[in-house]
Design brief:
With 106 residues, the protein is of the alpha/beta class. It has 3 helices and 6 strands, in the order E-H-E-E-E-H-E-H-E. It has helices at 13-24, 59-62, 74-85; strands spanning 3-8, 29-36, 44-47, 50-56, 67-70, 91-94. The protein has a 6-stranded mixed beta sheet, with helices on both faces. Helix 3 links the parallel strand 5 (67-70) and strand 6 (91-94). The radius of gyration is 13 Å and the shape is globular.
Length: 106
């Protein structure tokens, strides 16, 4: 029993490291969803939960998760984070510095 976790930017260096961190910290992951750009859709990545196919990112699919890790540009984060979290959406953990000076965001 665990959480549905998404990594956006899963094929990049930071995304791949996040997969390792989830395993290493034994984060309770029931399902891992991996999102990346259209050119990576359909490729598979070997994870601690087995081989997982890359999906094309969409806000609606990200909102089906409990936690969404963003391993993407600050511009992407600024555009999509508010849409993912609105109306009680999932927790978003952003690796960029896009929200660094936003006092209301922890």
């Amino acid at each position: 029993e665990g959480y549905i976790v998404a990594i956006v930017g899963a094929t990049g260096a930071v995304g791949l490291e996040l997969i390792k961190c989830l395993e290493g910290k034994r984060f309770p992951v029931e399902q891992l969803r991996l999102f990346a750009s259209a050119k990576s859709v359909g490729k598979t990545i070997s994870t601690f939960l087995g081989d997982i196919s890359i999906e094309d990112f969409s806000v609606s699919e990200a909102r089906k998760c409990d936690f969404v890790f963003l391993a993407v540009s600050g511009e992407f984060s600024l555009q999509y984070s508010p849409l993912i979290i609105e109306d009680g959406g999932p927790f978003v953990i952003d690796n960029s510095s896009a929200f660094r000076y936003h006092d209301e965001i922890p």
